[in-house]
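Hey,

Quick one before I head out. I ran the complex with FE2/S2 (inorganic) cluster overnight. Inputs first:
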Amino acid sequence: MTDVTILLDGQPVAAECGETLLSALRRAESGVRSICGGRCACGTCRVAVAADWAARLPAPSRNEARLLQVLPGAGPAHRLACQITLNQETAGLSFRLDTPPTRPRVTTSDPSHMETPS
Ligand code: FES
């Protein structure tokens, strides 16, 4: 049953009122990541909403805002899909997936990150 339609990269995705954006994206097999399972702890479900939607969505909670601040490449259009509840007011929400890049791994066999002794 489709209550609202949202737009992922301009393509319609069916969603139900009351579910999270993350839930709708999972059902649509969008490839959205969610390492923490939707508990606002990992940031992998990050999306970038269209500019005209950034101000229309309810403000992020303190937890969401804190997590968004520490993610690489954070900007005002970023939100967490697990923290957006869909309803009639979000019909037509336009966004794209924007999983933050993972941190580069440094191994002990790669000395390039080490300081030169003075
Ligand atoms: S799924 Fe982890 S923060 Fe949204």
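The pocket of FE2/S2 (inorganic) cluster is lined by residues 22, 34-36, 38, 40-45, 80, 82 (CB under 6 Å).

Talk tomorrow,
K.
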